[in-house]
Fold:
Amino acid sequence: MSDHAPVLLEEVLAGLAIRPGGRYCDATFGRGGHTAAILAAIGPGGQVVALDRDPDAIRAGRRRFEGESRLTLVQGSFGALEARVRAAGVEGELDGVLMDLGVSSPQLDEAARGFSFMQDGPLDMRMDNEAGQGAAQWLAKAGEREIADVLHSLGEERYARRIARALVAARAEAPITRTRQLAEIVAAAVPTREPGKHPATRTFQAIRIHVNRELEELEAALPQAVRLLAAGGRLCVISFHSLEDRIVKRFIRREEQGDPVYAGLPEIPPHARPRLERVGAAVRPGADEVARNPRARSAVLRVAARLAA
Ligand SMILES: C[S@@+](CC[C@H](N)C(=O)[O-])C[C@H]1O[C@@H](n2cnc3c(N)ncnc32)[C@H](O)[C@@H]1O
Structure:
C-alpha cells in the first residue's frame, strides 16, 4: 500500500505554533504524516485527537501508532468536528486545529477505491466507503442537468453540458460502473484538451467533491474549529483547489471583521466580535517540495489565530 507524504510539513508546524504540552486536532489524519510531526513536537504532556472519515486511514493509523497514549484516533467526518472531539473525551480548549483537505495518496493509488482514472477500478470515490452512495450510484440516477451543474460548478469544466449528455447517452446502453469507462466516455466527449491534463481530470474532481459533499463539510467544520480553539490557538487549513481555498479565505476574512451589523458601534457584544486574526500570507510549497512530491503542487496553506473573546 502506498504512503502519503505530508504537504508543507515545516510550514504547518510553524503555523500551529506548536508548544510542548499543547493539545491539537488533526482533522484529516490520512496516513498520519502531520500527526507524527505534531506528536514529536508536543512532548510527553501533549495530546492529539485525529479524525478521518476513511476507515482504512484509521485502521492504518491504529497500527502505526499502536501504544501511543497521547493520540486519540476517531473515524468520522469533520463536518461534526466539535461533537466528535468531545465524544473522544477531549475537554477544554485546543491549541491548534489542522485540516489538510482532499484525498490521500493511498486513496488515489488504490484502484479499488475508484478515485483515479489512471487505473481501472469500481467507480466509487467515497472517502468513507462504508457509508452513503458512491459515484456509480449517483451517476446512474442523476438527471442530465444535475450532472452538468456538478461538472460545471465543482470541476469548472467548460464542456460540462456535452459530457453530461454523453454520460446520459452511455448509461442508456450500459451502466457506468468503472473508472476507465467513465474516463473514456469523457475523453470522447470533449473536443479539445488542456495541455498536460487528462480530459477527465475535472470530471473526476467534480464527482468526487459532490459524492463526498466536500465543500459542505468544510463550511460546516470551520466555525466549529474556531469554537474549539483557545485564545491564541491556531487554525491551519491546506486546500488543493480554488473552490476550497475561496471558502477558507472568505471565512477567515469574515471572522476577522466580526458581524457587520455592529460595525462602527461603540459596544459590540461578544458573539459579534472578530474571532480570528490572519497569520501571514497564504503559503505555497517551494519548487523543491513540488519536485519531491508533485501532489503538493496546488497546495495553499492559510493560518489564522483565535482572538480572545
Ligand atoms: C490530504 S489527506 C491528509 C494527509 C495527512 N495530513 C497526512 O500527512 O498523512 C486528506 C485526508 O482527509 C480525509 N478527509 C477528507 N475530508 C474529510 C472529512 N470531511 N472528514 C474527515 N476526514 C476527511 C481523507 O479521507 C484523507 O484521508
